[in-house]
Amino acid sequence: MAYYECVFIARQELSSTQAEQLADEMAEIISNNGGEVRNREYWGLKNLAYRIKKNRKGHYTMFHLEAPSDAVREMERNMGLNEDILRHLTIRLDELPEGPSIMMQAKSDRGDRGRRGDRDRDRPPRSDRDETPNPENRLETASA
Question: What letter would DSSP give residue 132?
Fold first, then answer.
């Protein structure tokens, strides 16, 4: 059997539990046709690069599969028929990657960074700074 990676985007109107149920249905199609879902990741509700069928966001889900090509073809056929799935992409792999995907690694790395306001904490308050423009200089540049 061959290895595959499949990513699909579900409509933004679905809840995360409905998106998970949709992923369960697709995984069931694979298992009923002699394949196996080795890894499954829900990447969350993300912004789309452009509008797809009037949607600006979508629920992203990724599968790593070990399945015959007929099972993958049947899953893709069902994805094409399902109105809740906006887009899908399946690629064949030489071997399945170990560990979490890049998307899941990026999610865990975000927690290490501080918030935006954290980097301004060392600065004195605005009133103490000498950044107020000189009104005389403004007149000179305006008349020049």
Answer: P
* 116 burial via Cβ count (<10 Å: 0-12, 13-18, 19+): exposed
- Domain 2-49+60-96 is of which CATH architecture? 2-Layer Sandwich (3.30)
Q: What would the pLDDT profile of 74-117 be if each residue is shown by its tens digit?
A: 999 999 999 999 999 999 999 988 888 888 888 777 665 555 65
pLDDT for position 99: 82
Residue 20: how many other CB atoms lie within 10 Å: 16
15 in Cβ contact with 80 (< 8 Å): no
SS3 content of the chain, % helix, strand, coil (to 5): 40, 35, 25
Q: What is the mean pLDDT of the chain?
A: 84
CA distance 107 to 88: 22
Which residues, in sequence order, are bridge partners of residue 93? 3
